[in-house]
Design a protein that fits this description.
The chain has one domain: 3-Layer(aba) Sandwich (Rossmann fold). The chain is globular and about 45 Å long. By secondary structure, it is an alpha/beta fold. Strand 4, helix 7 and strand 5 form a beta-alpha-beta unit. Helix 7 packs across helix 8. Strands 3-2-1-4-5-7-6 form a 7-stranded mixed beta sheet, sandwiched between helices. This is Ribosomal RNA small subunit methyltransferase G. Belongs to the methyltransferase superfamily. RNA methyltransferase RsmG family. Its EC number is 2.1.1.-. Its main location: cytoplasm. It is an enzyme of class 2 (transferase).
Length: about 230
């Protein structure tokens, strides 16, 4: 663990042993199972586990959380370890990754659910319902991600998109599209300040209303009904 032991103990607390076991599983199986690249093994803690777990700073106590495109379990598994108060569901379309996530959850004895599918699929949305927070890490550009994630949120819920240096450029490009999808103005936040050498950059989008297109469709339908009745 090197010089991250102090921050890891602070972030994971009583779950530190579980976090160490998760890191060991990724180190042992991550590359061969196509979960992480070979260069990532030496920076599992700072770039992946801690980078993911500190996002919990922005999540209210006891929140319902969905991690979209969970893949290797990032940020979902570190979040579950650091914040056992959360009700967490991992959404992942690939069978081999779902198998991995299931194995990890059983190994670490985590109270986490795994749903196989894509966030935009009707069946997945029906199974999950609406939640307080949706997380996503390195999944898609902001506008496309908002189209997948915002429908999973209750009004007032938050999408937390873990991004890199391109965060502000994505906001400038995609803010109008996010608004059409029912999201508020995207904001950039840093998590893990004072703990991590490089804090985690998160784009936060609150769901303020239904999609504009859905509202427009309802209005058009209502006008059509009134016209038939008066015609």
């Amino acid at each position: 663990m090197g010089d991250v032991r102090g921050p890891a103990a602070e972030v994971f607390g009583a779950g530190l042993a579980a976090a160490e076991r998760f890191a060991a599983l990724l180190e042992e199986h991550g590359v061969e199972r196509g979960l992480i690249g070979p260069r990532e093994v030496d920076r599992l803690w700072d770039r992946h586990l801690l980078n993911s777990a500190v996002v919990g700073e922005r999540i209210p106590k006891g929140a319902t959380v969905v991690d979209v495109g969970s893949g290797a379990g990032l940020p979902g598994i570190p979040l579950a370890i650091a914040r056992p108060d959360l009700e967490l569901t991992l959404v992942e379309p690939m069978a081999r990754r779902v198998e991995w996530l299931t194995e990890v959850i059983e190994e670490l004895e985590l109270d986490v659910r795994v749903t196989r599918g894509r966030a935009e699929e009707r069946a997945v949305r029906a199974e999950i319902g609406t939640v307080d927070v949706v997380t996503a890490r390195a999944v898609a550009p902001l506008a496309r991600l908002a189209g997948w994630c915002l429908p999973l949120l209750r009004e007032g819920g938050m999408m937390l998109a873990l991004k890199g240096a391109s965060a502000r450029d994505e906001i400038a490009r995609d803010a109008a599209a996010v608004a059409r999808l029912g999201g508020g103005q995207p904001e950039v936040s840093e998590c893990g300040v004072g703990l991590l050498e490089v804090p985690t950059t998160v784009v936060i989008v609150e769901r303020e209303r239904p999609q504009a297109s859905a509202q427009g469709k309802r209005r058009r339908n209502a006008v059509g009904v009134r016209s038939k009745r008066t015609g």
